[in-house]
Specification:
By secondary structure, the chain is α/β, with parallel strands linked by helices. It has 14 helices and 18 strands. The strands form three sheets. Strands 1, 2, 3, 4, 5, 16, 17 and 18 form an eight-stranded mixed β-sheet that branches. Strands 8-11-12-13-14-15 form a six-stranded mixed β-sheet. Strands 6-7-9-10 form a four-stranded mixed β-sheet.
Length: 465
Amino acid sequence: MQRKLLLACTGGTLLLMSLLGAATAIESRAQSTDDIPHVTGAWAIQNARIVQEPGRVIERGTIIVRDGVIEAVGRNVTIPWDASTIDGDSVTVVAGFIDALSHAGIPEPGRPDNPAPVPDRSNPPPERAGIQPHVDVRDLMDPSDKSVDAYRKLGFTAAHVVPHGGMLPGSGAVALLHSTSMRYGGPTDLFLQFEGARGVYPGTPMGIMAKVRQLYRESERRLAIESMYADNPSGLSRPPQDPVHEAFFPVARQEQALLVFTSDALEIHRALDLRDALGFRLKLAGLSGGFDAVPVLRDAGVPLAVTLAFPEKSDWMKEIEDDSLMSMLEAFEVDPDLRTPTYRDIEAERRNLEIRQLRSRQQYVGMPALFEQEGLAFAFTTYGMKTRDIMPNLRAMVDAGLSTDAALAALTTHAAAFAGVSATQGRIAEGYMANLTLVKGDLFSDDMKVVRVFVDGTPVNYENQ
């Protein structure tokens, strides 16, 4: 009897040990598999090179993420028992990139090739004129749009997005590049671009400026009427309700900025002229050709977002290696007075034209480096770009003299400031949102590869893609 009891106890012990071993193995596999839900939402990235912000680096440090928030960061951090671990050996961790102005996750609506005619082209309906400032981009966010994953693969975890459209397509907002929910906070800025309407007023830059003045002044007047009515409505007619003018109320009250996209130096001056005339808060984005407006931008003191786009290479440039193109710039000077008296001098004129084209393009590529040299803080925007051009263009700008720290700041700390989220994004620090980008290779080099991102604490693995 005692022998049978001993065998039964021994067998039960072995069964219990087997079950515990199986459970441990299952738990171990779950901790190393990204697609299995994590009850605690805790992660530990250990032994990584951590760039908390430009100029602040922790070698072989640890980051603890819990429920979407950075819980701890440092060299001597205790890893919680319930955290899933990621080996950060040979990995650099930076704050998730932020696009200062983008259409990421905002599907482009179809547009008719031939818009319907209107009775009065000088006074078309607002939507026909591209005037829809009341549109809220948050209602247009689509996490399933293919651009969301395309941006994440480049290291972006958030973007300041605006609607597609004409001169006043709507208000912007910060979007998290999450696969299920993109909304983060309320509307940010009212978006304006010098995009004229086809066949109706306002169709020219001067018409756009006149229309903005008219809308803003009328919005100020209506805001004053509403304030009077709210103080004492007795004897007053109810103020008119108009979503177009009401969308300007936060700008008129200095609660929101007017975010203006500019595509050349002249548009920069036009945006600043509007600001000076009307008194609204201004943010400038795009700034293509801004190398001709550096003193003006320095004096303006407004937030800046520089486009990562620049002119494509001419066909003849594509046939020459970049090093050889740079050698041409050093070896030849542009002769502004060169003329071709005979056909024998055509080759000299051709070479002079090529150098002019090359120098002109190089001004655009080198503009961020110039801004850094002149002490202008700026974020980066990919507005209107194809995602495949973003990183090659950024690398070209770094090769043209932009420092790695300035490039990183333009995608993190300065981008967060531009978008108004500096309190929660743009740095790796305790209490900040767990938006992280993990890369192998040197930052912004040809061999840099994004291997994983965290968006609001949710990891997305690109190691094998």
